[in-house]
Amino acid sequence: MTLIYPRESNAAHAPRLSPAYKSTVLRSPSKPLVIIPHTLSELTGPVYGHETVRENDNDLTIQHKGEPLGERIIVHGHVRDEDGRGVPNTLLEVWQANACGRYIHVVDQHPAPLDPNFTGAGRAQTDSNGYYRFVTIKPGAYPWGNHPNAWRPAHIHFSVFGHSFISRIVTQMYFPGDPLFTYDPIFNSVTDEKARMRMVSSFDIENTKPDWALCYRFDIVLRGRNATPLDND
Amino acid sequence: MSNITPSQTVGPYFKYGLTPGNDYAWNDAFGNDLVTPNVSGERIRIVGQVFDGEGKVIPDSMLEIWQADAQGRFADPQDTRAMPNAAFKGFGRCGTDAKGGFEFRTIKPGPVPGPGGKPQAPHILLAVFARGMTQQAITRIYFEDEAANAADPILTLVPADRRTTLIAKREQGVTYRFDVHLQGDRETVFFDL
């Protein structure tokens, strides 16, 4: 399979300088990026080394002695390329705050309690169809210092690899109907509304487990299309 | 407009999930030491710091590297020239410390074919992620002691007065220094891919 990576696809991303999100001001390049052809270096990527994923790494509710507090949820979906084909055997890494909006990271100063039964980190590999599944706790919103009364909407961070170094993406999954969307400069740094809404999961009643967990679907589309075959092939 | 999922910042709190080291009780998927027993090639260290537009160190960034083995082959079946060198994975990850510092232990990559089959000088891809970055910034690490740099088909696309930002300086022994400046007069060249 040969994939091509149209540059136009990058238009979905947020501008690197998004001043309402203040820390972009000193951390975005001020000179033009240099356009270069995609060489073997960019068109390949790490496909080995995922053996560190353990059987239960995709269940964030069973990593400690007891069960974490909060709303138990299933988050699942497909990782696909721009032509809609599933991306098989690719690594996903997730991290998130607990139900109170507190991260276990030592730098987090939010005065909400840690949960002794919740770390908030997980990993999964997509199957041969590009499907993945996590079990976790719905994260809480949390305050941050960007501007007065700034709160992040509930979100789960996703890191995904895909077919190559340039399909690699780090993003955030949001929950449908969050009232904080309007006020969040990180969510709104993605200026195209359709693109922005692709970061919002959908409530999935069909896959909700009765008496156990609600379910959300989050499909991820990575860069990469099938190369158009030449006429004389 | 394409239908891809947009990127979002890695934020300030990725460490316990992505670069736990010994600081958090979570197994590392990737580390900053790429050297495996019996791997061929010259063992090198790459050290550096990451700076913002005011020259302040960035203590909360994450760096990922991707490179070929000493024969210039990638550990990816998409590289069909030869069987990948299974002893060397070619991918590493490191968070910056309180001084913005990072370190990778790896091997010097061999030359990789470029556009039109023209060889590229030995190089390592480097992606920088951080709070305040809406997507990763991708650059390349070249080596100052490689004569092939002069004819490299990618370096020659970079304005001449900025090429030095992509050249790692050999310090002592097998250590190369490569500082990353996200913005400003000394800004590192980043690529539009």
Please give the alpha-carbon distance between the first and last residues of chain A: 14 Å
Unreliable stretches covering 5 or more consecutive residues of chain B: none
Write down the Rg of chain B.
Answer: 17 Å
Find the CATH superfamily of chain A. Aromatic compound dioxygenase
What is the C-level CATH assignment of chain A? Mainly Beta
Largest sheet of chain A: 5 strands, mixed
Q: Which strand-content bin applies to the residues of chain A?
A: 15-25%
Shape of chain A: globular
Enzyme class (chain B): oxidoreductase
Keywords (chain B): Dioxygenase, Oxidoreductase
Protein name (chain B): Protocatechuate 3,4-dioxygenase subunit alpha
EC number (chain B): 1.13.11.3
Summarize the topology.
The complex is a heterodimer of chains A (233) and B (193).
Chain A: E1 3-4, E2 34-35, H1 40-43, E3 72-80, E4 91-95, E5 121-125, E6 131-137, E7 142-144, E8 150-152, E9 155-160, E10 169-174, H2 193-197, E11 202-203, E12 214-217, E13 220-221, E14 225-226
Parallel strand pairs in A: 3-12, 3-13
Antiparallel strand pairs in A: 1-14, 3-6, 4-5, 4-9, 7-8, 9-10, 11-12
Chain B: H1 15-18, E1 43-51, E2 61-66, E3 91-95, E4 101-107, E5 112-113, E6 119-120, E7 123-130, E8 137-143, E9 167-170, E10 175-177, E11 180-181, E12 191-192
Parallel strand pairs in B: 1-10, 1-11, 8-9
Antiparallel strand pairs in B: 1-4, 2-3, 2-7, 5-6, 7-8, 9-10
Question: What is this structure, in a nutshell?
Answer:
Chain A has 233 residues and is mostly beta strands.
Keywords:
heterodimer, A: 233 residues, Protocatechuate 3,4-Dioxygenase, subunit A, 4-stranded antiparallel β-sheet, B: 193 residues, mainly beta, 9-stranded mixed β-sheet, protocatechuate 3,4-dioxygenase activity (chain B)
